[in-house]
């Protein structure tokens, strides 16, 4: 049973956030509205060493702990936001915890729809990963992401071998958006209980991100991509998350391809709960931090 805090947070999300995605017209207005500031908050720059650079014309932030030697472990973190919203305070909190665990964390700020598409994102995040491996062994590197960033993290990893790059030691995917077609019939069973996401708005965002290309292209929907050869995968999902059916399907397809999956399904939790300050999120964050420390 979900905690009282989660119930209250879900009520707030249903009132404040879900209406934006329930209507295609409202989603279009959101898509074409001003973007938020992607810069790290002051508290993060006061707590950690933070460096900003550009790769291929897009910003990349490197976050390191202020104490100790240069980290020998690294995380490439791809933020979510339906490919429309910038990295948020919730993302920076998780990045900070990873740095506290003794990791160098790379945060690529990829271009967002409708101005940019997946065509710009792929060479950018691939270049960031390639540059990271110049300093850190792939055996001590983790690729992580949430929601849209989780789908991008999986799609990136599926393409690394073809790009002549080694895969990371592990993938950590939080509520990953892995099928932009939203065609899984089981989604209808979850939609009413999800306080945040709705197919109408997500399909609108997906169309902008794909810019006319087939949504089943694995670079857009990695659920249709190759599952063989992936590193061990950790999946975090709640039972009140619209992406639950596709995340279960991803688990099954990775296992069918001979891969290793740790599947964490939290009863009553909503979308990206490990990023949210609720008890269920705290438990998930602790598991993620243990994984990071064991790199």
Entry summary:
The protein has 295 residues and is of the alpha/beta class. The protein contains eleven helices and eight strands. It has a single domain, classed as Alpha/Beta hydrolase fold, catalytic domain (Rossmann fold, 3-Layer(aba) Sandwich).
Key features?
Rossmann fold, 295 residues, 40% helix
Q: Can you offer a commentary on this structure?
A:
The protein is an alpha/beta fold and 295 residues long. It has a single domain, classed as Rossmann fold, CATH 3.40.50.1820. It is built from eleven helices and eight strands. The protein has helices at 4-16, 18-22, 24-31, 42-47, 89-100, 118-133, 148-160, 187-191, 199-210, 244-256, 279-293; strands spanning 48-55, 58-65, 73-78, 103-108, 141-146, 170-174, 233-238, 261-266. The protein has an eight-stranded mixed sheet with strand order 1-2-4-3-5-6-7-8, sandwiched between helices. Strand 1 and strand 2 form a beta hairpin. The longest helix has 16 residues, at 118-133. It is globular. The protein starts with a helix and ends with a helix. 45% of the residues are buried. The mean pLDDT is 96.
Task: Present the secondary structure layout.
Layout: H1 4-16, H2 18-22, H3 24-31, H4 42-47, E1 48-55, E2 58-65, E3 73-78, H5 89-100, E4 103-108, H6 118-133, E5 141-146, H7 148-160, E6 170-174, H8 187-191, H9 199-210, E7 233-238, H10 244-256, E8 261-266, H11 279-293
Parallel strand pairs: 3-4, 3-5, 5-6, 6-7, 7-8
Antiparallel strand pairs: 1-2, 2-4
Helix pairs in contact: 3-9
């Amino acid at each position: 049973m979900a905690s009282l805090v989660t119930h209250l947070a879900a009520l707030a999300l249903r009132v404040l956030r879900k209406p934006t995605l329930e209507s295609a017209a409202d989603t279009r207005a959101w898509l074409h509205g001003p973007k938020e500031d992607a810069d790290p908050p002051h508290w993060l720059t006061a707590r950690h060493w933070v460096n900003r650079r550009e790769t291929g014309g897009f910003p990349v932030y490197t976050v390191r702990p202020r104490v100790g030697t240069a980290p020998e472990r690294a995380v490439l973190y791809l933020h979510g936001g339906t490919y429309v919203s910038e990295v948020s305070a919730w993302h920076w909190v998780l990045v900070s915890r990873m740095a506290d665990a003794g990791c160098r964390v790379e945060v690529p700020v990829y271009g967002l729809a409708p101005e940019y598409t997946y065509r710009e994102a792929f060479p950018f995040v691939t270049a960031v990963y390639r540059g990271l491996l110049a300093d850190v062994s792939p055996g001590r590197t983790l690729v992580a992401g949430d929601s849209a960033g989780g789908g991008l993290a999986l799609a990136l990893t599926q393409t690394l071998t073809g790009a002549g790059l080694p895969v990371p030691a592990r993938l950590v995917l939080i509520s990953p958006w892995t099928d932009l077609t939203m065609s899984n019939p089981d989604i209808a069973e979850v939609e009413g209980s999800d306080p945040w996401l709705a197919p109408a708005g997500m399909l609108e965002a997906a169309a902008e991100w794909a810019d006319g290309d087939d949504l089943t292209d694995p670079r857009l929907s990695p659920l249709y991509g190759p599952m063989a050869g992936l590193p061990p995968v950790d999946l975090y999902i709640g039972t009140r998350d619209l992406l639950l059916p596709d995340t279960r399907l991803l688990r099954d397809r990775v296992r069918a391809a001979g891969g290793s999956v740790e599947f964490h399904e939290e009863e009553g939790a909503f979308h990206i709960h490990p990023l949210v300050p609720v008890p269920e999120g705290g438990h998930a964050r602790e598991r993620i931090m243990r994984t990071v420390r064991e790199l």
